[in-house]
Amino acid sequence: MEKIKIVCLGGSLDAGSSSLKLVKCAEKKLMMLGAVTSLIDIKELKLQIFSYSAMKKGPSPIFAKILAKIHEADGYIFVSPEYHGTVSAAFKNVIDHLEYLSAFKPPYLSSKPVGCIAVAGAESAGHSTLTTMISIVNNLRAIAASTSFAVGLGSNLFTPSGNLKDKNAERRLNRLAEEVYTLAVKLKY
Length: 189
Known about the structure:
Oligomer: single chain
Structural class: alpha/beta
Largest sheet: 7 strands, mixed
Strand content: 15-25%
Distance between the termini: 9 Å
Helix content: 40-55%
Number of strands: 7
Number of domains: 1
Shape: globular
CATH topology: Rossmann fold
CATH architecture: 3-Layer(aba) Sandwich
């Protein structure tokens, strides 16, 4: 049986990004479950602002490889910081560049599971961002995982060495990774 492929997409343009640390934690859990993972750090993509006119030139060779990897994946984890009640501009720009997937067969992320995590700065924030992320997933024709979650106080989630110290966030992250992996298996086979 072919291994399940999961793309983990997240981060921010900030050094020490809590969003990037969370997506790396999700990737580790998915690898423990047996998935073959690909981590896409938003900061490393350095994409120009999306426009349909620029899209006519086609993706760069590097981004074309990333699009192929995304298309071939069986599931996804998306992590975005919350900026002023919604996803970051950098996260949204990457999502907008997924418009290239409209030409693939099947288009976009059709019928594949996506786990979403919104990372906010305030204690009880992130829920509007999570709602936006789920809406984005639906518009990409994918299936939002029911255990997707928002987490506050993102800058306090990790130890100085980068380990996740918030046990509740760790439990929720593990549950989300397990759900995405399980759904990917069921939808693939």
